[in-house]
Design brief:
The chain is mainly alpha-helical. Helices cover 48% and strands 3% of the residues. It has a two-stranded antiparallel sheet.
Length: 116
């Protein structure tokens, strides 16, 4: 029985997660096979969205499709989020830093990558 291929969007999401990850767990296990497995707290599928949240204060990107849909619904093309109010994104980053959110998720905000 042939196995189904994942949706293209899911594959792209996982590929972008690999780009924002410094060390892949599989690579570490090959180098150090006797070490206990490390469970990363942020699943690969969530990493690109979380990275955007850390950087921009918004989980989903505002693309032409999103702004077009907002215009069609008689809304401002740019939602009232961190894209519009950049100072609020900085406040959100400070709160997340104080809470240790990046550290808990193994995210380095300076390098803008996840450790695992």
């Amino acid at each position: 029985m042939e196995q189904e291929k994942p949706m293209k969007s899911f594959t792209r999401l996982l590929d972008s997660a690999k780009k924002v990850t410094e060390h892949r767990l599989e690579d570490e296990m090959v180098k150090h096979p006797w070490r206990r497995p490390f469970n990363a707290t942020a699943p690969d599928a969530a990493k690109p969205s979380l990275k955007r949240d850390f950087e921009q204060g918004l989980v989903y990107p505002i693309t032409e499709d999103v702004s077009g849909a907002r215009k069609a619904a008689n809304l401002d093309p740019m939602p009232p989020t961190a894209h519009k109010f950049t100072e609020q994104a900085e406040k959100k980053r400070e709160i997340m830093k104080d809470m240790g959110t990046g550290k808990k998720l193994a995210f380095d905000p300076e390098k803008r990558v996840y450790k695992y």
